[in-house]
Design a protein that fits this description.
Layout (H helix, E strand, L loop, with lengths): L2 H12 L5 H20 L5 E16 L1 E14 L4 E8 L5 H13 L4 E7 L5 H8 L4 E4 L1 H9 L4 H15 L4 H15 L4 H14 L10 H4 L3 H14 L8 H19 L7 H16 L1
Parallel strand pairs: 1-4, 4-5
Antiparallel strand pairs: 1-2, 2-3
Helix pairs in contact: 1-2, 1-11, 2-11, 3-4, 6-7, 7-8, 10-11
Length: about 280
Amino acid sequence: MSTREIGKFIERILGKAYSPSTISRMTDIVKEDIEKWHKRPLHKRYSVLYLDGLYVKLRRDTVEKEVIYVVLGVNEEGYREILDFFVGGQESAYGWQEILQHLYQRGVKEVLLGVFDGLPGLEEAFKAVYPKADVQRCVVHKVRNTLNRVRKKDQFEVAEDLKLIYRAPNKEMALQMFQQFESKWSSKYPREVQSWANELDVLLTFMDYPSSIRSVIYTTNAIERTIKEIRKRLKPMNSLSSLEAAEKVVYLTIQDFNEKWAGRKLRGFAEAHEALQQMFEKRYN
C-alpha cells in the first residue's frame, strides 16, 4: 500500500489531510502500536465472545482472498471491545483455536458464552479453550440458510413459523413451537427440519440467559455490523498490497470502534449484571 493510499484512508477516518512525510512517520508508529496492542493484557472475565471473519483481497505475489479473523468481547461490566484480529489464510477451526488460546494467555480466563456461526469444528475448538463456556449458534445465519433451501412460495410462512421458536418468551415455549414446526414441515422439508432438530440445543442457548440481553446474544449481529464497516472502509482499495498493509488498515478501523464504545454499555447488560455475576460465580468458583 502506497503512502498516498494510506493517506487517503487516514483522511477518511480522521477527516484531515496529511503530508507524505507525516503519513510515513504515522505508519511507522502504527506498526509499533499494532505489536503492543496484540500483546496488551485483557480482562479476566468476558460475558460474551463474538467470533466472525471477512475475506479481503491480499497480494502475496498474486492476489487472493484471505480471511481476517475478528473477536469482539463484552466484559462483565457490559462494555464491548474488539479484543484481537488476525489476517491471513483461509478460515478454519484450527485458526480460531490458536486465536482463542492467545486470548487465554493474555488473561481471558473466564467466558460465559461464545456466539458464532456454524463453521465445521468451531464449537469444538472454542470448547477446547473454554470448556465451561456455553455456545450460541447464530440464529440469523441458521434462518437465512434454511430459507435458501425452501421453495420461494413457502419462505414467508417458514420464516414466520421459525420466529415463533426463537422469539418465544422461554425455552419451554420455544420447544413447543419447534414441535409444531416439525409436525407442519417435516414431510415437505425433512432435511431442513432435521437440521434444526440436531442443532436446537445450541440455537436456543440464549434462552438460559437474562431476558434483557437475549436479543443481542442470539445472533452475531453485534460483530457483523463491525465487519460490515471494516469491509466498507477497505472496499475503495481493491486489494491490499501486503499483510502489513492489511494489518494497519484493520487496526486503525478497530481503534475507531473501540474508542466509540469505551463509554457505552451494550444494550441490556446493565440490567443483567447481577444475574451474569451469579453465573460466573457458579461456573468458575
